[in-house]
């Protein structure tokens, strides 16, 4: 039986400013309808600011399946309205990085992504919380904020996934080290103070930044956050960190401190913007926590990234 039959009312919402959104909207609608997904409403939104409003309205109207087309920023902008709710989330990855989709094994090919919505299984995944902002992948301060500033829409269109390493080089050349203090409200680690940091990141999912690994054992339903602080201890050591980012092995480098926890408070000097899933939406100090099983998502039947939701 197609999974679409399990849902009564579905809505399709596509960010047509995402990297491939404009081309994908009509094809996605046609494919989902042909696969039996009960689409009652569909929206092609040129202004990303309207995405949260559209998602909230469809949930309030009783839709139990929200199919969203866009990238990680699109997902992060609407997840607050879906967290801990009854509606199920279907994702069509149309962005540049698509790290949330990569974590869950959701294909970036539109045909296969639509089939995942129609025939996939529902799983529960954790969400991160930065004060009162939910996020799916990583929240961070330092170098990542510079990357976000350097990652212009024009660069994304020209370079695709290569936009991230290009922006990282630009951000590194302009980076100013900062100091930070990590405290752990649940007492699972001693407080830690650092000088001259490159970055502090708090990861919920497995991937960020176009395929970089948060940590070797990171998972999206393990009930914990992976926290790391990177110190620029010289060019050779920093080069090692950058080289190992693709595998997550960087957490074992001498210039990296790594913690696993459910809650952490971050203070910095000076106060710094917080990059949440690629958007600068907060400022330090900030407290991070994990919310287990907060989001219901459709994934491919063979995905092993998260446990199945037994209520569906």
Automatic annotation (TrEMBL):
<dbReference type="InterPro" id="IPR016064">
    <property type="entry name" value="NAD/diacylglycerol_kinase_sf"/>
</dbReference>
<dbReference type="GO" id="GO:0008654">
    <property type="term" value="P:phospholipid biosynthetic process"/>
</dbReference>
<dbReference type="InterPro" id="IPR045540">
    <property type="entry name" value="YegS/DAGK_C"/>
</dbReference>
<keyword id="KW-0443">Lipid metabolism</keyword>
<dbReference type="InterPro" id="IPR050187">
    <property type="entry name" value="Lipid_Phosphate_FormReg"/>
</dbReference>
<dbReference type="InterPro" id="IPR017438">
    <property type="entry name" value="ATP-NAD_kinase_N"/>
</dbReference>
<dbReference type="Pfam" id="PF19279">
    <property type="entry name" value="YegS_C"/>
</dbReference>
<protein>
    <submittedName>
        <fullName>Lipid kinase</fullName>
    </submittedName>
</protein>
<keyword id="KW-0460">Magnesium</keyword>
<keyword id="KW-0418">Kinase</keyword>
<comment type="similarity">
    <text>Belongs to the diacylglycerol/lipid kinase family.</text>
</comment>
<dbReference type="InterPro" id="IPR005218">
    <property type="entry name" value="Diacylglycerol/lipid_kinase"/>
</dbReference>
<keyword id="KW-0444">Lipid biosynthesis</keyword>
<keyword id="KW-1208">Phospholipid metabolism</keyword>
<keyword id="KW-0808">Transferase</keyword>
<keyword id="KW-0547">Nucleotide-binding</keyword>
<dbReference type="GO" id="GO:0005524">
    <property type="term" value="F:ATP binding"/>
</dbReference>
<dbReference type="GO" id="GO:0046872">
    <property type="term" value="F:metal ion binding"/>
</dbReference>
<dbReference type="GO" id="GO:0016301">
    <property type="term" value="F:kinase activity"/>
</dbReference>
<dbReference type="InterPro" id="IPR001206">
    <property type="entry name" value="Diacylglycerol_kinase_cat_dom"/>
</dbReference>
<dbReference type="Pfam" id="PF00781">
    <property type="entry name" value="DAGK_cat"/>
</dbReference>
<feature type="domain" description="DAGKc">
    <location>
        <begin position="5"/>
        <end position="134"/>
    </location>
</feature>
<keyword id="KW-0067">ATP-binding</keyword>
<keyword id="KW-0594">Phospholipid biosynthesis</keyword>
<keyword id="KW-0479">Metal-binding</keyword>
<dbReference type="GO" id="GO:0005886">
    <property type="term" value="C:plasma membrane"/>
</dbReference>
